[in-house]
Amino acid sequence: MTQGNLYIISAPSGAGKSSLISALLQQQQNNEMMVSISHTTRPPRPGESHGVHYYFVSIEEFESLIKQDLFLEYAKVFGGNYYGTSLPAIEENLAQGIDVFLDIDWQGAQQIRKKVSNVKSIFILPPSLTELEQRLIGRGQDSQEVILTRMSKAIEEISHYNEYDYVIVNDVFEQALADLQAILRSERLTLSHQKKQNQQLIEQLLAK
Ligand code: 5GP
């Protein structure tokens, strides 16, 4: 079976990354993609649940998982909270031919690139800082103070955009989704992927 592709998707918060990933997953036909569920020490937001959006754990639990070497990467991301990607589920899914998305920040992306070859990374940009701020305010989840911190974190995150293989500007949502789908489609058509996927056909075509 062909190994699935591993993708990193990063963006400043409010750029629409989560909506793009959920739309992508909803439109898939054969469960050929999944998003890895990270561990975090931040408390759940309204509507978020354990094992669906994140594994919500205490700082003690998180540090114990670090000691057990469970994480492929981890970082202190926002408000001093730990976020981390655990290895076992990712490997299992990739081995079954499923594409796995890591919704992680630039620090995590740097760690993964050092450890995993063949990882493709995608950065989502907002159309402007004003629009980003409006989206954060519109979510109604954060206080004015948290929004200010998120905005300065956003600019820090954006400054790493040029470490990524692909960049999408999420101005019109449907267009950004089409761009994301185009990336995945072209990645499935690369020589190395197609060689494995169509091994039998290629052998037949070259048999004489
Ligand atoms: P939020 O608290 O809004 O869910 O996420 C804040 C940031 O943490 C986002 O940029 C998100 O991509 C990042 N993040 C989520 N999970 C992980 C992870 O496992 N590792 C790293 N490094 N960053 C993560």
Automatic annotation (TrEMBL):
Q: Which GO terms describe its cellular component?
A: cytosol
Native organism is Pasteurella canis
Which gene is annotated as encoding this protein in its UniProt record?
gmk
Q: Which domain of life is it from?
A: Bacteria
Write down the SUPFAM superfamilies for this protein, in alphabetical order. P-loop containing nucleoside triphosphate hydrolases
Q: Which Pfam families match?
A: Guanylate_kin
Please write the reaction equations for the catalytic activity of this protein.
GMP + ATP = GDP + ADP
Q: Give yes or no: UniProt keyword rRNA processing.
A: no
| Guanylate kinase-like domain ranges (all copies) | 4-185
Q: What does this protein do?
A: Essential for recycling GMP and indirectly, cGMP.
The protein's name is Guanylate kinase
- The broad enzyme category this protein falls into is transferase
Family note: Belongs to the guanylate kinase family.
**Protein localization:** Cytoplasm
A molecular function (GO) term: GMP kinase activity
**What UniProt keywords apply to this chain's record, in alphabetical order?**
ATP-binding, Cytoplasm, Kinase, Nucleotide-binding, Transferase
Endoplasmic reticulum among the record's keywords? no
Q: What is its EC number?
A: 2.7.4.8
The principal location of this protein is cytoplasm
**Can you tell me which residues bind ATP?**
A11, P12, S13, G14, A15, G16, K17, S18
SMART domains recorded for this chain?
GuKc
The record ties this protein, via InterPro entries, to: GK/Ca_channel_bsu (IPR008145), Guanylate_kin-like_dom (IPR008144), Guanylate_kinase (IPR017665), Guanylate_kinase_CS (IPR020590), P-loop_NTPase (IPR027417)
